[in-house]
Amino acid sequence: MRYYSLNKYLRNRFGCAIAKIRLDAGLSCPNRDGTLSNRGCIFCDEKGSGTGAVRSGVDLAGQIENGLIRMRGRAEKFIAYFQSYTNTYAPAGRLKEMWDLALAPDEIVGLSVGTRPDCLTDETLDLLTGYAQEYEVWLELGLQSASDRTLELINRGHTAADFAQAVSRVKGRGIKILAHVILGLPHEGEKEALNTAGFIAGLGLDGVKIHSLYIPNGTELAEMYRQGRFKCISQEEFARLAVSFLEAIPPDMVVHRLTGDPDPARLIAPDWSRNKHQSIALIRQRLEELDTWQGRELGAPKPNE
User: Fold this and answer.
1) Which of 92, 184, 249, 291 has its CA at 20 to 30 Å from residue 303's CA atom?
2) Are residues 215 and 176 in contact, defined by beta-carbon separation less than 8 angstroms?
3) Do the beta carbons of residue 177 and residue 128 sit within 8 Å?
């Protein structure tokens, strides 16, 4: 592989196939409940970029049980992934209850928590530090872009400096940190993508999730698109940006994701984002054609050489 995939990392770490079970804890977000804003990020829909399982009437215990039943044929061990909304946006006592529940099955060997950089109390970090003594713990922090101008445009409610400060508070606790970034945001191109890559590389993060920007129905971004104020990039342009991004991050940074994965029923555009496997294939093809790899721009040697 010309990039350090999550599958490769997990097989090296555990010696077997590992899968994630996506969970919705029913939490909210300060960018939606009025604490910071009522709008949310312009690309975030009513499911909070997650499963929306709680709204469908499935409690956390049921989600865990259903996830294990569904995924047992694909993997031997599992990571509980709290995905929807902001999964540290609750008192530490409630967080402990839901994380203890998720880690109770013997087959679950890790915890992955998606959240915002401005929603990390000392009590929450202490709690995660305790889990990290026994489990694989990933803290997934939404960044999206290192440009404060872009962060304001997409209504993130925090700055790049806020993100860096959060990372500094987590470092040294045994918790692995990854950033979520989006390629193809409004008014961003290769220059901005490389700036974001350099920013996270400088912070010494353990991993990254690269998302393509897609437009779900019911979002502010959807209105911008309908009004002609925003145009999606092509699948080929996304693959080009992703390869440039990979070249600019350290070779030991685990790549958890290479593209977005929208709900087809809610997707407005771009149509190509329905086929994530094709997008990944294009990225891999471009890496091969250019004979390039993750970390090349930082002087990393070609893999297997």
Assistant:
1) 184
2) no
3) no
Q: Answer yes or no: are the C-beta atoms of 190 and 238 closer than 8 Å.
A: no
User: 113 - beta bridge partners?
Assistant: 82, 139
Inter-residue contact 174 to 137 (CB < 8 Å): yes
* Tokens (6 digits) for 182: 């989006």
pLDDT of residue 123: 98
CB of 163 within 8 A of CB of 118?
Answer: no
How many residues comprise the chain? 305
The verdict on pTM exceeding 0.90 is: yes
List strands edge to edge, sheet with 18-23. Answer: 18-23, 77-82, 108-115, 136-144, 176-183, 207-212, 254-257
